[in-house]
Design goal:
By secondary structure, this protein is of the alpha/beta class. The chain has two domains: 280 residues, Rossmann fold (3-Layer(aba) Sandwich), CATH 3.40.50.10540; 87 residues, formyl-coa transferase, domain 3 (2-Layer Sandwich). It has 17 helices and 14 strands. The strands form four sheets. It has a six-stranded parallel β-sheet, with helices on both faces. A three-stranded antiparallel β-sheet has the order 4-3-5. The two termini are 40 Å apart.
C-alpha cells in the first residue's frame, strides 16, 4: 500500500455551501485532492450555525458559545483547507481568479446566477485557465426549469416523484428518510469531474459539468417502470414490500421487524416450509411471480400473520436454516455503533480541531483500494485557518499583505 492517494496533485477550489456541494468536495478530499474551501469572511457557510454544536462543554443544542463548532462542519469540512475571500469585492474576485489559474477543479452549488454576478462563473475561470474542470450542482438546473424556486432537498424530492412511490398505498406520499437529493447529486458530480479530468488528460481542455438534483432523482425513479405498472392497475406505492418481487420486504415480529427476500423459487419454497404452508406452492395465486404480484396483499398478510408470532432472533434462525435470506431491521444508532462498519470506515468518529474525538459519528468514505489508502484524517478547520498558508504559498502574499487584506475586508 502506498501513502499516495488517487487524486493527489489535483487542486480543487470549493465554492460550496450547505450539503449537496460540500459532500461532493468532501469525497474529492477523501480521495486525496487538495481542497481549498473558499468562504465569505463574514461567517462562511450557513451550515456553520447548524445545531448541535460541540465545544468545551460537550455536544449541545443550545445557542453556540465561544469556540463551539457545528457538528455539521466537523462532518462535511474534513480534509479541506479553509480560506476566506470576499468575492463581492473586486480584489477578492481577482484573488480567486489568481487561485483558479493554479487549480484543476472548481466545484460550486451557489444559487442560480450567483457565480455570474460575482464574476467567478465557468466562462470567467476558463478565460484564465482553459484546463479547468468546473462543476455546478443546482437543484433544478441552470437556467432553472422552476425559476425563482429555492433549491431545497424536500422540494426536489416532491417534484421528482420519489415521494409518490415512497410510503404505503393507502397513505400519503412520503419523504425519503435522508436528504437523498442533496446526497445523490454530488455523487453524479464527482463522476463527472473524474471523467472530465480523464478527458482533459487526453485533450488538454477543461469543461463545465452541470448536475441537477431533480434530474438525478428523476433518473432513479425511471429505474422502475411505474408508468407500465400503473397502466396495468398496480399502485406505485407498496409500503415495505416490493410487490414485483413478493415476498420481498419487511415483516413484523413479536419484538421488532425483519427483512425477508423470498422471490427466488428455492427461497420461496423454504419460506413456505418454515411456515408449514407447503400447499401454497400449488395455489394458482402464488405458484409463480406474475400471479403473486397480483395477490401480493394476500400473500403478505399470510406471512405477517406467521412472522408476528416469533421473536426476531428465532424467526431469523428458522429462515436461515432453510437458506432464506433474512436480517433484522436495525435502528440507525445500531448501525452507527456497528464495530464492523467502523472498522471498514463506512462510519467514523468525528474530531474537533482542538478537543480531539467527541463521541459523535460522521460519514466515512466507503471505497476500498488495493494499492492506496483513502479517507478523512484531517479535522475540519476553523473559518479562514488556512489563509496564511494558501495565500502565502500560491499567491506569495506576505504577512503585511494578509493584514492589509483582512483590514480592508477582502479576506
Amino acid at each position: 500500500m502506498t501513502m499516495q492517494r488517487p487524486l493527489e496533485g489535483i487542486r480543487v477550489l470549493d465554492l460550496t455551501v450547505a450539503l449537496a456541494g460540500p459532500y461532493g468536495s468532501l469525497l474529492l478530499a477523501g480521495l486525496g485532492a487538495e481542497v481549498i474551501r473558499v468562504e465569505s469572511p463574514d461567517g462562511g457557510d450557513i451550515a456553520r450555525t447548524n445545531p448541535p454544536h460541540v465545544g468545551k462543554n460537550g455536544i449541545h443544542y443550545g445557542a453556540p458559545e465561544e469556540g463551539d463548532v457545528s457538528l455539521t462542519i466537523l462532518n462535511r469540512a474534513r480534509n479541506k483547507k479553509s480560506v476566506t475571500l470576499n468575492l463581492k469585492s473586486p480584489e477578492g474576485r481577482r484573488l480567486f481568479l489568481e487561485l483558479a489559474k493554479q487549480a484543476d477543479v472548481v466545484i460550486e452549488n451557489m444559487s442560480e446566477g450567483a457565480t455570474m454576478r460575482l464574476g467567478v462563473a465557468y466562462e470567467d475561470v476558463a478565460k484564465v485557465n482553459p484546463r479547468i474542470v468546473y462543476a455546478s450542482i443546482k437543484a433544478f438546473g441552470e437556467p432553472s426549469i422552476y425559476p425563482g424556486l429555492k433549491g431545497m432537498d424536500v422540494l426536489a424530492q416532491a417534484l421528482s416523484g420519489i415521494m409518490d412511490v415512497t410510503g404505503f398505498k393507502d397513505g400519503p406520499p412520503t419523504r425519503f428518510g435522508l436528504p437523498i437529493a442533496d446526497l445523490l447529486a454530488p455523487l453524479y458530480a464527482c463522476n463527472g469531474i473524474l471523467a472530465a479530468l480523464i478527458q482533459r488528460g487526453r485533450t488538454g481542455q477543461g469543461q463545465h459539468i452541470q448536475v441537477s438534483m431533480l434530474d438525478c432523482l428523476a433518473s432513479l425513479v425511471a429505474e422502475e417502470h411505474f408508468d407500465v405498472s400503473q397502466a396495468a392497475g398496480y399502485p406505485v406505492r407498496s409500503g415495505n414490500s416490493q410487490d414485483r418481487l413478493v415476498p420481498f420486504g419487511v415483516y413484523p415480529t413479536r419484538d421488532g421487524h425483519a427483512a425477508i427476500a423470498g422471490f427466488n423459487p428455492v427461497w420461496f419454497r423454504g419460506l413456505l416450509e418454515a411456515m408449514g404452508r407447503q400447499e401454497l406452492l400449488d395455489d394458482p395465486r402464488f405458484a409463480s411471480r406474475g400471479p403473486r404480484m397480483k395477490h401480493a396483499d394476500e400473500l403478505n398478510a399470510l406471512i405477517e400473520d406467521w412472522t408476528s408470532g416469533y421473536a426476531t432472533v428465532d424467526l431469523l434462525a428458522e429462515l436461515g436454516s432453510r437458506g432464506v435470506p433474512s436480517v433484522p431491521v436495525r435502528t440507525a444508532v445500531e448501525v452507527l455503533n456497528d464495530p464492523r462498519l467502523r472498522e471498514r470506515g463506512a462510519v467514523v468518529e468525528l474530531e474537533h480541531p482542538s478537543l480531539g474525538k467527541i463521541g459523535a459519528t460522521g460519514m466515512g468514505l466507503p471505497i476500498h483500494f488495493s494499492a492506496c489508502k483513502v479517507g478523512f484524517d484531517q479535522p475540519a478547520m476553523d473559518l479562514g485557518a488556512a489563509n496564511a498558508a494558501v495565500f502565502g504559498a500560491l499567491l506569495g502574499a506576505s504577512d503585511s499583505q494578509l493584514a492589509e487584506w483582512k483590514q480592508s475586508g477582502v479576506i
